[in-house]
Amino acid sequence: MPLLSTHNLTKSFDGVNAVNKLSVTLMPGRITGIIGPNGSGKSTLINVLTGMMPFDRGEVIISRRTHLKKIHAHEVPFYGMTRTFQDVRLFEQLPVLDNILVVLTERSIWSALFEHHTVFHLEQAESVLRKVGLWEKRNELAKNLSYGQRKLLEIARVLAIIHDSAGNIDTIFFDEPFAGLFPEMIKTVITVMKELRDQNRSVVLVEHNMDLIRELSDHLIVLDSGELLAEGRPAEVLARKDVIEAYLGE
Questions:
Q1: How far is the C-alpha of 175 from the C-alpha of 217, rounded, in Å?
Q2: Which residues pair with 139 in a beta bridge?
Q3: Which helix (H) or strand (E) is 216 found in, with range?
Q4: Which class for 70: exposed (0-12), middle (13-18), buried (19 or more C-beta within 10 A)?
């Protein structure tokens, strides 16, 4: 059963369709790569699906049961989704550990700071920080991390959200997570994505690096001018003449 699908999804800016009558399906246990030239609608699609901006027409269907005409950002976890951002969003003045504990405990940042953190919360936080290699940085302020470490912290926070949701998060959007990462960091993120896929979740990857797309994607969606240009197995899709031309013409 699809975890999420869209039907004729449309989003316009000043009369230009950034996403134009798009119908796609996201399946569990699969990494879906989304590629396309600059301005093809990749990030707009993720922003619409995660409630960062409203869509104009069409609908989003969750598990074939819930048909949505609008999505608000605060509702996204309820619909089983979470995401990372191109521009990393952290609590800059908090230590790395507290950035994770805010997710695992009280949702209000101020309440979380004064909430008693149980051994369970601390063990969960340690687990996700070790997974991304940031446990030794747990007392460092987020603002002092390198660019790559900041991206890893955001991914750790996504993992904490998944742990805290008791299995309710099943669709994870990664918006250019590899940009600016060193090779060892890239290996860490690859491992995280594959583990999420193996847990039968749907992983959605927006990425420009074709080597990573080939390595990770089980299914590939190509957008061009907000429309679906092609989809299918990565090797077959990337060999198509219209896909090659879309990139060469960028």
A1: 14
A2: none
A3: helix 210-216
A4: exposed
CA of 64: how far to CAs of 11, 67, 139, in Å?
A: 22, 8, 44
pLDDT digits (tens, 9 = 90+) for 57-113: 999 999 878 899 999 999 999 999 999 998 898 999 999 999 999 888 755 555 545
Residue 233 exposure: Cα atoms within 13 Å on the Cβ side: 2
Maximum alpha-carbon separation in the chain: 58
Q: Hey, is 39 helix, strand or coil?
A: coil
User: Residue 119: its pLDDT value, please?
Assistant: 78
pLDDT of residue 166: 65
Which domains are delineated in the chain?
1-80+170-250 (3.40.50.300), 90-167 (no CATH)
Instruction: Fill in the amino acid letter for 68.
Output: L
Closest CA to 80 of 7, 19, 1: 1
Look at residue 89 and give its three-state secondary structure: coil
User: Which parts of the chain register pLDDT below 50?
Assistant: 112
DSSP secondary structure code for residue 43 in this structure: H
The CB density around residue 143, as the number of other CB atoms within 10 Å, is 11
212-193-34-246 Cα dihedral, nearest 10 degrees: 0
Rg of the chain over all Cα atoms, to the nearest angstrom: 18
Q: Is 231 helix (H, G, I), strand (E, B) or coil?
A: strand
Residue 211 is predicted with a pLDDT of 94
How far apart CA 246 and CA 250 sit, in angstroms, is 6
The amino acid present at 212, given as its one-letter code, is: L
* CA atoms of 195 and 131, how far apart (whole Å): 11
Would strands 57-62 and 219-224 be described as parallel, antiparallel, or unpaired? unpaired
Sequence-distant (6+) residues with CB within 8 A of 21 are: 8, 9, 10, 58, 227
